[in-house]
Amino acid sequence: MSTIRHHYTQDDLSDAIRQSGIEIGDVVSLQVSLGLLGLPEGATTYDQVANLVIDSFLDALSPTGTLIVPAYTYSIGKGEPFEVETTSSGIGPFPDIFRRRPESVRSRDPMLSSVGIGPHSNAILRNISNSCYGEGSTYHRLREHGAKICTLGISIYWATYRHYIEEMAEVPFRFRKEFSGTIIENGEASQETWTYFAAPLGVDNCSPNGLPLEKLMRESGLVRVAKVGRGELNCSDAGHFHDFGVEQLRLNPWLTAK
Description:
By secondary structure, this protein is an alpha/beta fold. The chain has eight helices and ten strands.
């Protein structure tokens, strides 16, 4: 009888978290693609793998740290109501597994909501501006709180934080677009208008391409990398990521476009 081969253990993941520079009390923004890592020991279903990963990060951060996970729905962009408590993420099951934990807090952003667990969750996710990427957004708050921007199983150019940097740098290949729609929270509906920094549809040279910025960041030592299973955990300080990205985009405003 054959056994299922595992590619990493929970101890391997905990070691990688430490190697990436994450410490007790940190604020971490985490985007994942768990399938690319392979299977961890002792977990066979997606829910089990996701909860193993979540527990590993929360244990590393301790109760004084905060974990933020994107749970984007794109609701307002699709003309659909966004219900803070129940609307499912449109980017896979991991955010919803995280969101269903009773201690979680979710933002009201009807395009790019995020979920947090930890003492800084409210300060980062609540009472944000109606700009998805701009001043007062979740991404701006992550920078203010000295967060670490992390990706697990995917390279750091996938981190949505890059689009916040692009808005701060006023890149020429994206523009501010307003969307109006319904947000429902605690059973109460409100009509709101939110601003999204969008790329024009159907304009190929404006399509996103974060690889050149990541290459420069890695060459400059701004990304700490730790192996996990078949993949990597990548981590960068939000302030350094922002400052370096804005600097590079001022040198080449089309750096992160196709």
